[in-house]
Amino acid sequence: MTTTPDLIDSLSLDLRPVATVRKPLKRACLWLAAMIAVVASAAWLTGAWPLLLTRLEVTSFAVELAATLATGVAGVAAAFILSLPDRSRAWLFLPLPSLALWLASSGYGCYRSWLVSGPDGLRLGRSADCFMFILFCSVPLALALWLALRRMAAGLDPVRVTAAGGLGVAALAAAALQFWHPFDVTLADLAAHASAVALVCAVVMGGGRRGFAIGASDHQA
Amino acid sequence: MNFSASPPETDDWGLLMTRAQAGDRTAYRALLHEISPWLRHLAGTRFRTRADVEDALQDILLTLHAIRHTYDPSRPFKPWLMAVAKRRIFDRLRSNIRRGARETNLQPEHETFAGSETNSIEAESEAKKLRHAVSQLPEAQRQAVTMLKLEEKSLAETSAATGLSVAALKVSSHRALKNLRKLLEKT
Description:
The structure holds two protein chains of two kinds.
Chain A: H1 4-13, H2 24-45, H3 49-55, H4 59-82, H5 96-117, H6 127-149, H7 158-177, H8 187-211
Chain B: H1 12-21, H2 25-44, H3 50-66, H4 77-102, H5 120-135, H6 139-150, H7 155-162, H8 166-186
């Protein structure tokens, strides 16, 4: 067995200069700006902007979209902050207020849809498409987030980091969905959105422990 | 000192870490030597045996080495160190509990025959695996692990025989053990 003094000697001999990581909020802002730019460009290329701008005139939809986007932004920011060991673990709760508002505004949309359309308000609609969109849009976002967090110390607390990151990624995907979702949310849609978000969170959290495993990689032969 | 106790007031640690991030080996060695007794004490509040405490301490030091770039020199060092140490100790405790739940120590009655000759096939197979793993190591690491660990020669003897410095032998031996662990885990 290597003794501790031997280990200290070998770690010291192996020491190389390292660049310290940027402030987590600055990194989160850069990452979010890049991702939002990609989605906004895709919406512009597919001509989805005018429809979204028209729908934003309805206050309830604007609130729902703002809450979804805020949940995504807060989740991603929390994941960056939590991936540094000396930051408060309470940052995990940052996305919760906007998540509550998102669920409440979506629920209100369903209720209104049911009031206006009667039983049709509970129809299945295009829930399966929404579900698949959130899943497939989350994959590149989750990979991009993993790449951005890999150099930090996410492996020290993978559960909290991936919980916040998974929620952030899924919420961003749900916000992006609104560009190509030109109809009110039905109960089935809401269930599809919530299931997709939960599934993305579960998958990201499941993969997080392995994906962020800390190894003394720069201390190996 | 209980688990939530803070490290002693030593403001120099942050400075030493900042110099270590810039590649100052002397500062890094001094820092690791200075924090080790405190980390050992911290681990000692959670682990019973001396070997477990040393394992936990080394795990913390390796983790600290791997994520040293995440320390922000504009912030205090002690909360950062405390968070890393606590996380690593909790991880090891959790892993020990899991292992304890699915593994049972072998008792004499678990053996069909207690005599060592009856277990020779298994022992031979293990030795074969180890020989194969050692043969896959780079030359310097193979020499270091063979002479220091298997033949139990001293550092001075091995240094004289191989022409490698004592420091280089220590590094090679440490790396060899890590690589062997990986190789044997694969088999």
